Amino acid sequence: MTSTSASSGTKTQTQTAATSAKKKIAVLGCGKMGTILLQGFLQHGLIAKGEAVATVQHEEHRRELSRELGGVTVTTDNRAAVHGAPTVLLGVKPQALPALLEEITPELAPDTLIISIAASTTTGFIQEKIGKDAHVVRAMPNTPAMVGAAMTALCAGRSVRKEHLETVKKLFESVGRAVIVDEKHMDAITALSGSGPAFAFVILESMAEAGVSVGLPRELATTLAAQTLFGASKLALETGHHPALLKDAVTTPAGCTIEGLIELEKGGLRVTLMNAIIKTTIRARELMNS
Ligand SMILES: NC(=O)c1ccc[n+]([C@@H]2O[C@H](COP(=O)([O-])OP(=O)(O)OC[C@H]3O[C@@H](n4cnc5c(N)ncnc54)[C@H](OP(=O)(O)O)[C@@H]3O)[C@@H](O)[C@H]2O)c1
């Protein structure tokens, strides 16, 4: 397959490339998250480059992405991209989704599996737009998918069959962990694990800055902070122990750690983090209408 342009002169080429019989997935709105996921699916051999089509809105981005994904058809023509695609991944921002759904609906086959990663947008909303029997799975991944360490939550729309959910779970497990949840939890999950990496990076950066302030070289301080957060997370996941128990094991009576913990309490770290996730959940609930 060759990369294509949506300009009128190359429309025929776009249609040809995007209607290939080999097509397995169309990623519409292949921005930051769409690209991370598509690259993950490619790297882990779930799909081949010739079986994927990606779309973006702007021609300049199309050219860049086409270079980056070398071998994947990249176009600005959403309708041509979904034509004949058994699976369509929706990667646009929630606000852009209604118009995109209207655009592609005439081209969707009845059995198309739709995966939406858009925050805030329900499977019910998507079904209303494209047809009540559409198979819609909603997913909330996160950026650690880039290194195979994503946390993705999946929930099924009304007309999703068990095999659809298994197919989607397999796709997302190629880039990390995936869990199936009730849709009522998706906005909270958007805040906790979707936005969570941003909160974790602020903690990581702050720990590293503190290291610099007490005399550590910056690079060493950043490595120490990152590996410590990684190790603590791994320990919690692998032992299944309550975080409070794991914290107590580090905290010797009258030792150093308790002094730091007292400062964290004084600074309100816990309540600040809790409020951040609560506020983010509220924003996730209203994003679709903003
Ligand atoms: N970033 C995250 O950590 C994360 C995590 C979980 C879920 N999500 C969800 O993923 C979605 C995308 O987020 P993002 O951070 O990846 O945003 P992004 O980088 O801005 O990606 C959105 C992409 O959509 C393209 N686009 C917009 N309108 C289009 C249209 N009509 N047809 C085709 N392409 C179109 C844009 O193309 P141009 O670049 O050409 O304008 C852009 O590349 C959001 O719904 C978000 O809720 C994001």
Instruction: State the domain count.
Output: 2
Element-by-element helix/strand order: HEHEHEHEHEHEEHEHHHHHH
Shape: elongated
Sheet with most strands: strand arrangement: 3-2-1-4-5-6-7-8
The DSSP helix count reads 13
Low-pLDDT residue intervals, each spanning 5 or more residues: 1-19
Strand tally, please? 8
CATH T-level fold name of the largest domain: Rossmann fold
- Portion in helices: 40-55%
What structural category arises from helix and sheet content? alpha/beta
CATH superfamily of the largest domain: NAD(P)-binding Rossmann-like Domain
Strand content: 5-15%
Bound molecules: NADP nicotinamide-adenine-dinucleotide phosphate
Please report the first level of CATH classification, the CATH class of the largest domain: Alpha Beta
Structural overview:
This protein has 290 residues and is an alpha/beta fold. The protein has two domains: 8-186, NAD(P)-binding Rossmann-like Domain (Rossmann fold, 3-Layer(aba) Sandwich), CATH 3.40.50.720; 196-289, ProC C-terminal domain-like fold. 51% of the residues lie in helices and 13% in strands. It contains 13 helices and eight strands. It has helices at residues 11-18, 32-43, 59-68, 78-82, 97-104, 123-130, 162-173, 186-194, 196-213, 218-239, 243-250, 257-266, 269-286, and strands at 25-28, 52-55, 73-75, 87-90, 113-116, 135-140, 150-156, 176-180. Helix 9 packs across helix 10. Mean pLDDT is 93; it is low at 1-19. It binds NADP nicotinamide-adenine-dinucleotide phosphate (NAP). NADP nicotinamide-adenine-dinucleotide phosphate is lined by residues 28-34, 55-58, 61, 78, 91-94, 96, 100, 117-119, 140-143, 194.
